[in-house]
């Protein structure tokens, strides 16, 4: 009896994203078959049983299929916006100067604390829809704009709710160690006590976080304070990730590697020792060209060092109101190619396979392999390089999430 599938996509060109770093796993005459939301077959059309049956067959007319895109670093849920600070930066103020004057993250905290969960969801939906509209099927969302237990949990609950409002997989990260709230009166150690002893246990008990993040920087928290947060996360069984080496080299990449972090993100100032440590730990380097561009950074992340030492590289939008109001993974890829000199293959695997690896979900998504979720992006393009080459153009033909 012929095997029966829910859907078969045929007459397609397929980029499976399997293989080594330089290989997109391209198949010219490809076919994908799915059942119960998962891929059963992804390979050449000639190797697929000719008598296979399906509820629905989709002729892709030679279009390209890639895995659904993965945005592995966003701050999608927040209140208000920071357009005024953008104007100040255009007049010469630096990101650090704005932050030290009470702007920056703390200004978004004030707006986020005032917002209800419903308001946070309503504000985030257009941003999420923009990502979905370009083929995203998995999106990470951080807290970090509450800086107290109540608002941090409300942010994370809003993020979880987004995953019920839209057909997309949402991964959440608790970022209580993002900045110092005004009521802390400058006492970072006391605030970290609060994060470790009250906020993090409450978040974990409620099941609101898939990972724990931190911001290790001169304007944020030290290596010792970050390590305390990571130790508390480890005690609760939660993986960690880190905003590291963005504005200076405080050894963030090496600290992330010490705790076997899923990823270290930004990394403009990471040195060779940090890159070596990340490779040994399997920590993914997440590059965020939107922030580099928006705050007019000049120090580029050490892509050559990451290549030399075999560090996996992912890309993400870093969508946030202050330093990267970006909701386009397609533009993030173009920025990474033009600003960081990443290759087409590095960009495309960076928003699929490596983005999934950075979230710890590579076993479920990120490549087109039997057993993984059937998350697909079908593109009106002649070659994969078009997805990186074009600016302000969306060639998405169809998006498939969990086989639908």
Notes on the protein architecture:
The structure is a single chain. The mean pLDDT is 96. The chain has an eight-stranded parallel β-sheet. Strands 1, 2, 3, 4, 5, 14 and 15 form a seven-stranded mixed β-sheet that branches. It has two domains: 97 residues, Urease, subunit C, domain 1 (Roll), CATH 2.30.40; 291 residues, Alpha-Beta Barrel (TIM Barrel). It has 15 helices and 15 strands. Helix 4 crosses helix 5, helix 6 packs parallel to helix 7 and helix 12 packs antiparallel against helix 13. With 404 residues, the protein is of the alpha/beta class. It holds the Pfam family Amidohydro_1. Keywords: Cytoplasm, Histidine metabolism, Hydrolase, Iron, Metal-binding, Zinc. One of its GO terms (biological process) is L-histidine catabolic process to glutamate and formamide. GO terms for molecular function: imidazolonepropionase activity; iron ion binding; zinc ion binding. It catalyses: 4-imidazolone-5-propanoate + H2O = N-formimidoyl-L-glutamate.
Summarize the topology:
Elements: E1 4-15, E2 26-35, E3 38-44, E4 53-59, E5 64-67, E6 69-71, H1 83-90, H2 95-100, H3 105-114, H4 117-132, E7 136-142, H5 149-165, E8 169-177, H6 188-205, E9 211-216, H7 223-235, E10 241-244, H8 252-258, E11 263-266, H9 272-281, E12 284-287, H10 289-294, H11 303-309, E13 313-315, H12 329-340, H13 344-350, H14 353-358, E14 376-379, H15 386-389, E15 396-400
Parallel strand pairs: 1-4, 1-5, 6-7, 7-8, 8-9, 9-10, 10-11, 11-12, 12-13
Antiparallel strand pairs: 1-2, 2-3, 5-14, 14-15
């Amino acid at each position: 009896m012929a095997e029966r599938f829910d859907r078969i996509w045929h007459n397609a060109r397929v980029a499976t994203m399997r293989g080594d770093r330089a290989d997109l796993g391209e198949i010219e005459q490809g076919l994908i078959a799915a059942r119960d939301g998962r891929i059963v077959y992804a390979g050449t059309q000639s190797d697929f049983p000719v008598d296979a049956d399906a509820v629905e067959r989709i002729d892709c007319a030679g279009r390209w299929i890639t895995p659904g895109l993965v945005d592995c670093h966003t701050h999608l849920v927040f209140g208000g916006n920071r357009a005024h600070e953008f104007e100040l930066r255009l007049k010469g103020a630096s990101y650090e100067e704005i932050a030290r004057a009470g702007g920056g993250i703390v200004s978004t905290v004030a707006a986020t604390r005032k917002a209800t969960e419903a308001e946070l969801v309503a504000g985030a939906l257009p941003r999420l829809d923009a990502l979905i509209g370009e083929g995203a099927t998995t999106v990470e969302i951080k807290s970090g704009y509450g800086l107290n237990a109540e608002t941090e949990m409300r942010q994370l609950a809003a993020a979880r709710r987004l995953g019920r409002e839209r057909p997309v997989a949402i991964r959440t990260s608790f970022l209580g160690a993002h900045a110092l709230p005004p009521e802390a009166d400058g006492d970072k150690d006391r605030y970290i006590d609060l994060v470790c002893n009250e906020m993090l246990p409450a978040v974990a008990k409620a099941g609101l976080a898939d990972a724990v993040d931190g911001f290790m920087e001169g304007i944020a928290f030290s290596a010792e304070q970050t390590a305390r947060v990571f130790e508390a996360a480890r005690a609760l069984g939660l993986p960690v990730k880190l905003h590291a080496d963005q504005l200076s080299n405080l050894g963030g990449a090496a600290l992330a590697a010490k705790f076997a972090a899923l990823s270290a993100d930004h990394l403009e100032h990471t040195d060779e020792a940090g890159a070596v440590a990340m490779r040994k730990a399997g920590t993914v380097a997440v590059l965020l060209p939107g922030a580099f561009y928006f705050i007019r950074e000049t120090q580029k992340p050490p892509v050559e060092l990451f290549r030399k030492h075999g560090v996996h590289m992912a890309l993400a939008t870093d969508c946030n109101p202050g330093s990267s109001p970006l909701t386009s993974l397609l533009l993030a890829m173009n920025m990474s190619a033009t600003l960081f000199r990443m290759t087409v293959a590095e960009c495309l695997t960076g928003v699929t396979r490596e983005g999934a690896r950075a979230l710890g979900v590579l076993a479920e998504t990120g490549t087109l392999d039997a057993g993984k979720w059937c998350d697909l992006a079908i593109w009106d393009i002649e070659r994969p390089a078009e997805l990186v080459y074009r600016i302000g153009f969306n060639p998405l033909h169809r998006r498939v999430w969990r086989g639908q």
